[in-house]
């Protein structure tokens, strides 16, 4: 019965990832008008093979330290977000136009025939349908739902060797990481940044780098909190003194990865935007202070 439940949860989580991946790639094809971009679906297309290998080779239908399912999903979504964001950047770039300002003014003047009343349009609803969303809203929606899908997919998939406490801890970490990552995309809307290709490219690179935390499962530190590992102080590192034993624990590696994959690079990026690009707003100041505090607290804990 437990095995059947694990199979059903594995199917449901991969189906959720596959649906969002297909929608994201479909949007890229619609924007680029090129069927070749359907090749981006290779990642989610391999989810079926990955599931068969995972169910056959693992006891609890899930790997312990690394999730190939999440990695394959990200291999489809991350390049798609890159293409969509760069398309938005290209549409916002200033266009050199040789026509004079008079032609621009005339183009915006309403022209109506004398004696003919202007046509009346039937009232329309202010609520836009999915097909009427502008490209910027499409990209923002896909980015936000991507992080929601990551949390829900991790929650639905089999826990493997994790306890409920470890799984809830991991999910809360995911939610915090997602809020910080989404703020990077909000900086792309600032007037000082939205046409700066170099800054947007670096932001997308940091976004991709930070998402590499999601395939990792680094909450499995100790089976019982507060108890030393079996075999004495040198069990993890034979022959090592007790002071060095903690450096081999997965909890320390988790903290180091969090600093190296997200908080450290994000702090440098935001400080650059504030100092060089003069991007100053409440959210920028808040998340910069948050990154400083997180880095200090994590180094203190290490």
TrEMBL record:
Signal peptide: none annotated. InterPro entries: Transmembrane_26 (IPR019169). Keywords: Membrane, Transmembrane, Transmembrane helix. The keyword Magnesium does not apply. The chain crosses the membrane at residues 37-53, 65-84. The keyword Membrane applies. This is Transmembrane protein 26. It comes from Tetraodon nigroviridis (Spotted green pufferfish). The lineage of its organism: Eukaryota, Metazoa, Chordata, Craniata, Vertebrata.
